[in-house]
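Submission checklist for the structure archive. All mandatory fields must be present; incomplete records are returned to the submitter.

[x] Identifier: Lysylphosphatidylglycerol synthase domain-containing protein
[x] Organism: Hwangdonia lutea
[x] Residue count: 322
[x] Sequence attached
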Amino acid sequence: MNKTLPYKTKQFFFVLIKLSIVLAAFYFIYNKLTNNDGLQFSDFVDFLSRNNIFTLKNIILLLFLSILNWFFEILKWKALVSFVKKITFKNALEQSLGALTASLFTPNRIGEYGAKAIYYSANFRKPIVLINLLSNVLQMAVTTIFGVIGLYFFTTIYPINFNYHKLVSILFIGLILVLLIGFGFKKSKLKIKGVSLKKVKHFILKFPKEKIWIGFMFSLWRYLIFSYQFYFLLQLFEIEIPYFNAMVIITSMYVLASVIPSIFIFDVVIKGSIALYLFAFINVNELTILSIITTMWLLNFVLPSVFGSYYVLNFNLPKTED
């Protein structure tokens, strides 16, 4: 009897942890929707119903774009992970959506690293963390490339009063900080999840270039899909703007939202503020932009995390030999 008690206790706490993660994710979603000073949820629902925007045809197309977005994310994860372990599409689906749910309420979704790693036995976990880092870097690379191009055209199309003296000073200080931090990293024994930077560099360098290219292409497809989804929502809300001009603002918005650090509590506030500032140049009202941002969040984060909660609740620790 005494021998079975620890196992039962362990199982009880394991189930409790899984329930706590799902409840925390749902509470986070509820709190974000109901305690948003920029957009009250009742105003959001009322605005959508008054404009009669979401017909069955539009809903199907929006859902299709969200499914396609996550389809490419799952394929990317499957392709990158195959470097250390072959997994099925079903495995990649479970890990991607389960990790989304488990990390939704963590700062900048940093919990995703641990959530994906725990699907594997101990000997695979450090490489999995690094592969997840590589996956995010590839997505950020696409965002940065399009964002820099978008910002260039944005500054040429729309009048922005720059204080160039301050801008040069900030860039100079930023460059000095980057150099100092880089020098400090080189001299220190900094580790990422117990792996030294030297080993991280070695891992990335030996990673198959064709898999990195495949991961980059999947990241590109994802970017094109959710950028178009944002543009499609602009059209649904009857915002008359040429496709090129819209993409200039959208790409600028995504890169600025990505590079500005924020803790998860203020994430929507900061990203919403960036969108409001940029779309103010074409005189789009605040309610419309905040409604689009909320809709994008519901489609691409909340809905997948609801499905991901199923995988969290049915999660079992991997065997010692995976």
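[x] Structure attached
Curator remark: Residues 4-159+200-313 form one domain. The first strand starts at residue 191 and ends at 192.
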